[in-house]
Amino acid sequence: MAGKTVAIMGGGVGGLVAANRLRQLLPREHRVVVVDRNPIHAFAPAFTWVMLGWQKPARIVGDLRHLRRRGIDVLLDEVTAIDLERRRLVLTRQEVPFDYLVLSPGVEYGTGDIPGLARAWTFYHLDGAEALRDELEKLREGRIVILIPSVPYKCPAAPYEAALLLDYYYRKRGSRERVDIRIYTPEPQPLPVAGPRVGEQVLEMLSAREIWFGPRMQVRAVDQDARTVEFADGSRASFDLLIGVPVHSAPRVVREAGLVGERGWVEVDRETLATAWEGVYAIGDVTHIPLANGLPLPKAGVFAHAEAEVVARNIAAQVEGQSDRYAFAGQGQCFLETGYNRAALVQGDFFAEPEPQVSLRQPSLFWHLVKAGFARWWLWRWL
Q1: Are 227 and 272 found together in one domain?
Q2: DSSP secondary structure string, 186-248?
Q3: Total count of domains within the chain
Q4: pLDDT of the residue at 1
Q5: 238 with 259, same domain?
Q6: 192: cis peptide before it, omega within 30°?
């Protein structure tokens, strides 16, 4: 049997897990190749720690090139086209033919053509978290606005975690009474996919910490000179420091390949993550998986990880001529740091009918320590 090539586009959570698992499952005559233009993999759940100066960036990153020691080819290059007819990835310097393709490119950040949003600070990437750290250090008083301009966005708990941690940060510094923290979002409640009870619990946390929450607020423009945010209903909010969640979209090269559906994301079979193209799978943030409540599966690393495990096993079974079939079950969890060395845990069955069954376990030292340990384990295990 001739050797097969499995190409993996993207070295994020899903790409790392898929590459490692495929290399474990497939004999060495089959090639596993990861393509990413950035050699550095960063552990995104720790970006809020970097934002507050609690973690050094060097401690939460790994080098994708280390995968080569495990027999995985790593190409540091940009994918300029996905040629589905000829079954190859077109890079800036070469082409990569594939028998199987795993799309795990994550999302593309932008402004959604919202004027002024490009100048907002953000912790949604490592460079932004580092830059924001210096701004927070300088702020002694004023209003911090955390702005969610559109949905969906990665890690739905992250903006709320950031607000709670900022509250703790300024209380430790003795200046919380001079710092107003506000969240504006188009969502009707925090974490709407998790259901009303979880949303109420998060609102209770925010209220107890005097963090203002503005739901159903659709941003129209940001005036950086006047330091105001204008919303679709005509109202305005002033700020001294604006922290924005970037507008998310599927990467341009994925859109140009005709892989996205009417919602702008790659539509897949929710159990196998197969696309409409034979041997082409998509995992993680680039996908759209509808749930029973009409909302999409959240964009979160825990789901990318589980999806990668399923796809890797199914591809390996196909390559080896086995009839085994694995299915993604839609279960997952995420941590919600609350400060004071505490973290809550949101977990549940997102494929449950007639609606997802999700619960929030109250903040504790235990969950904080679990998250801290998981961050260290992740880079050691997969890189």
Answers
A1: no
A2: SSSSSSGGG-HHHHHHHHHHHHHTT-EEE-S--EEEEETTTTEEEETTS-EEE-SEEEEPPEE
A3: 2
A4: 58
A5: no
A6: no
Distance CA 49, CA 75 (A): 30
**Nearest-CA neighbor of 18 among 67, 54, 86?**
67
- Domain end, chosen from 219, 248, 277, is at 248
Q: Provide CB contacts within 8 A for 84, sequence distance 6+.
A: 257, 258, 259, 277, 280
Residue 64 lies in a domain: yes
Using left for φ > 0, alpha for ψ between -120 and 50, and beta otherwise, residue 354 falls in alpha
Are residue 162 and residue 281 in the same domain, yes or no?
no
Amino acid occupying residue 207: S
Predicted local confidence at residue 180, as pLDDT:
98
Report pLDDT for 156: 96
The pLDDT value given to residue 2: 82
| CA dist., res. 48 & res. 163, Å (int) | 10
Both 226 and 128 in one domain: the answer is yes
Q: Are residues 21 and 116 in the same domain?
A: no
Rounded Cα gap, residues 134 and 130, in angstroms = 7
CATH number at residue 123: 3.50.50.60
Please list, in sequence order, all residues whose beta carbon lies within 8 angstroms of the beta carbon of residue 97, skipping any fewer than 6 positions away. 5, 86, 87, 88
Q: Structural domain of residue 310, as residue ranges?
A: 5-107+250-331
In the listed set 248, 276, 303, which residue is the last one of a domain according to the structure? Answer: 248
Query: Encoding tokens for residue 176?
Result: 């919380």
Q: What are the backbone dihedrals phi and psi of residue 8, each rounded to the nearest 5 degrees, phi first?
A: -120, 120
The answer to whether position 374 is within a domain reads no
For each successive 10 residues of the chain (383 residues), what is the average pLDDT?
A: 92 98 98 97 96 96 97 98 98 97 98 97 98 96 98 97 98 98 98 96 98 98 97 98 98 98 97 97 98 96 98 97 94 96 97 96 96 90 92
- Is 369 contained in some domain? no
pLDDT at residue number 6: 98
pLDDT value of residue 79: 98
Supply the DSSP string of 84-98, one letter for each residue: TTTTEEEESS-EEE-
Return the axis-axis angle of helices 158-172 and 196-208, rounded to nearest 10°: 20
CA gap 12, 106 in Å, rounded: 7
Residues 97 and 140 in one domain: no
